[in-house]
Amino acid sequence: MSSMEEVGAAPGSSSGGLGVGAVGAALEAVVGGPSMQEEVGFRRGEVLGPESDPDEPPPKKRMRLPEGESGKLEERLYSVLCCTVCLDLPKASVYQCTNGHLMCAGCFIHLLADSRLKEEQATCPNCRCEISKALCCRNLAVEKAVSELPTDCSYCLKQFPRSSLERHQKEECQDRVTQCKYKRIGCPWKGPFHELPAHEEECCHPTKTGTELMGILGEMDQSHRRELTLYNSIFSLLCYEKIGFTGRLEVQFRPYRTDDFITRLYYETPRFTVLNQTWVLKARVNDSERNPNLSCKRTLSFQLILKSKVNSAIECSFLLLKGPYDDVRIKPVIHHHAFSNDTNETDYVPLPISDSVECNKLLAAKNINLRLFIFQIQK
């Protein structure tokens, strides 16, 4: 018999001989005998599989987020899907550069407009790659993801998906701000929608006298008269014998330098023919402000110039409207001028656009497409 077997036969003989017998007894006590060992082996077989390689790592288990961590998912999505310029979630279209950085429609248009004013190439604020309407595309997946994120109603403070928030605030919210149905006769009340029935029962305007109501209606009629005068004027101009208009008027951006070497930017059209006369249309930003790119408020003003030589003065009315394929909102305004060889230029008049956002849309475009109507007044 070997010395190892002798050691195993005499477990208490010495401290050095406890290695095999004592360890085996300890394992039996911990595992609980052969039956417990089989059970442990069975459970291990369930995890690794009957034919799995013991050297392979066990399959990864899905980590359960502790309570409170799942609520931060929306915040993490906000930081991922927000605009890289204004750091806010886009409300409409989402554009991305060639490297995937996101920009909301307002910031994207503003960057393009600034680059036009600075005579520079527009670049992404993150990676500085070139951006333009041709290079950038919309990210529809991000737009749909953002539309499903919850947001608070500004009236009732409840959360709704962004896609349904507008309808909720306009039609469903009981705390939305509304006006009395008698506002047309002067009631100034504004309040939450759920208080409207109680107010209308107590409103004193339905009991006003006819004289009081006539005074209120007179003020309302003044604004309607101005609109009616404009439309009647346009219809009257359409009855003129000589009417000319441009189909697609391209106003191209061109820089020039003054005597003080200060770069001033303006738009100018190629020469075009209307009513057998040659014309040019010029436009400028913020009335030739030195640095219009530093201003948040932007306007466009235009000037009509007669390039032909005439024998006698030509009295005309003219107006500018948006082009056939543009979405910019322009309110029609009729202007009058008597053109001659001495007075062949009109004063700069503001382009009747609603706000700076519409102006940025025009500046961001490669060409500004407008339609010009000229009506010659017969003497």
What's the helical proportion of residues? 25-40%
Measured distance between first and last alpha carbons: 139 Å
Mean pLDDT: 78
Largest sheet descriptor: 10 strands, antiparallel
Number of strands: 17
Strand percentage, roughly? 15-25%
The rounded Rg comes to 39 Å
* Strand/helix succession: HHHHEEHEHEEHEEHHEEEEEEEEEHE
In the predicted model, the low-confidence regions spanning at least 5 consecutive residues are: 1-52, 57-65
Helix tally? Answer: 10
Query: Rough shape?
Result: flat
Could you say which structural class the secondary elements and strand pairing correspond to? alpha+beta
Put the structure in a nutshell.
This protein is of the alpha+beta class and 379 residues long. Helices cover 32% and strands 22% of the residues. The chain has helices at 3-9, 19-31, 33-48, 73-81, 105-118, 140-148, 162-172, 196-202, 210-237, 356-364, and strands at residues 94-96, 102-104, 137-138, 150-152, 159-161, 177-179, 190-192, 242-245, 249-257, 263-268, 272-274, 277-285, 300-306, 314-322, 335-339, 349-350, 368-376.
